[in-house]
Amino acid sequence: MTPPDTNLYLVGFMGTGKSTVGRQVARQLGFQFLDSDHEIERAQGKPVAKIFAEEGEPRFRALEREFIEHGHPAQRCIVACGGGLVVPPGMLELLHARGVVICMHAPIETILKRTMHTNHRPLLQVENPEQRLRELYAQREEIYRRTGTMVLTDSRPLREITGHVLRVYRLEAAHFKK
Ligand code: S3P
Fold this sequence. Notes:
By secondary structure, this protein is an alpha/beta fold.
């Protein structure tokens, strides 16, 4: 059996470990790893926070859509998607048409711990970031649940999470039809 070439899209809330896990999975599969935020930053020549500040969130969402539609190879890559990428209508369908979608999941308490000491996320540059995170998490929970198989990234070693993602990917990629 030849190994699948199908892309893998890792979606889920900020701080669920999409990039960390994605890099490991890419290494194991010999695929290219891409992080949608970094690719957009590279193409635009400025950080995500600056895009939000200067051009607004709708522009950033349009750049995310552009990246998924035309900005990356159609095969053999693992894409860690920014947390809000899958939220606008139609984005989930776009991802499903291009590859396997797996959702990284972690409880809100873990996400709070993982994100509170960082300052590169424009959506959390508010007076009460914890409240903002809880609101966003509540708003998006339902959307993430509909994206695909969920993999818990809390309280277990990275090796185990990577193994779980690889098993789900191989199973789903074997049935993937373009
Ligand atoms: C966002 C998540 C971020 C980044 C931007 C908006 C969101 O990516 O795309 O700050 O709307 O949840 P991470 O999930 O990699 O933090």
